[in-house]
Every structure is written in C-alpha cells, then in structure tokens.
Amino acid sequence: MRIHVLLFNARTENEGIHTIRLATPDGRERNIVMMFESRDDAERYALLLEAQDFHVPTVEEFDSEEIEEFCGTCNYEAKLIPEGFVPQSAEERIFLSPPETNLDDTDWERQHEEGAEAPSQPSPEEASEMSSAQLDDIRRRLEGLL
Description:
With 146 residues, this protein is α+β, with helices and mostly antiparallel strands. It is built from five helices and six strands. It has helices spanning 39-51, 64-74, 107-114, 124-129, 132-145; strands at 2-8, 16-17, 20-23, 29-36, 58-63, 77-81. The strands form two sheets. A three-stranded antiparallel sheet has the order 2-1-5. Strands 3-4-6 form a three-stranded mixed sheet.
C-alpha cells in the first residue's frame, strides 16, 4: 500500500521524519510516525505544522511496509491515518491537528549538529545478532528514505 509521510530536509544528509511523541501510562515516551493514506490529508497536516511556525515538511510517498520496517528499527510506532479518519479518543485527535507545542530541539537537528549517528542504526548488540544480508537490506531501505 502506498502511503504519505512528512519529511524534513527531504533527500539531504540531515533528513528527518515527523513523529508525534506521546507519553505512556508508565511515564515513558513513544514516537509515532503517521502514515497518511491520502496525500491531501498529509499536505493539510504539513500546512498546520507550518502555521505553527514549525519546520516546513514535505510530503513524500512510500510503500507502507518500508516505513513500518524503518519504524521497527528505530523503536517507533507506525500509525495509518486512513482517508476520512475520525478520531475515537482524545489521544487520536492529535492525528488530525498537531499539538500546540512543538519540540524546539529536534532529534535530527541535534544529531546533525553533534555529528552523531542516527537512532535508526542498530546498537552493536543488535547488529551482532543480524546477518550481513539483513544489515545490507536495512541499509538499502534507509538510504531509500534519504
């Protein structure tokens, strides 16, 4: 299935994907990547972010499996936002309109400034458990996101 996500600095070394950070009941945080079924919905959400003086994202089309795999490597959650989405809870309302507060210091900006590795890279422990073919596949897919 083809979906749309919001990217910042698309096709650059400093590319970042838009996530929503929500607190869990146990006080931890989770990052959610919204996968919009409708390009119009993704563009509307991008305009709402821009109206809040947030970084201006671009809408990019991907295969949903590619984004879900990327999310799995980063410990993010992928959330499909179907066309005509109607929220069923207060938490789901955030998928229609961004929160009024945004991060001033984004992870992808901080990593670029520090020259750090992206969080999407597996830890040394995870890498040793993966085959070379699996690592090559992940690299290929991540490069496709750039």
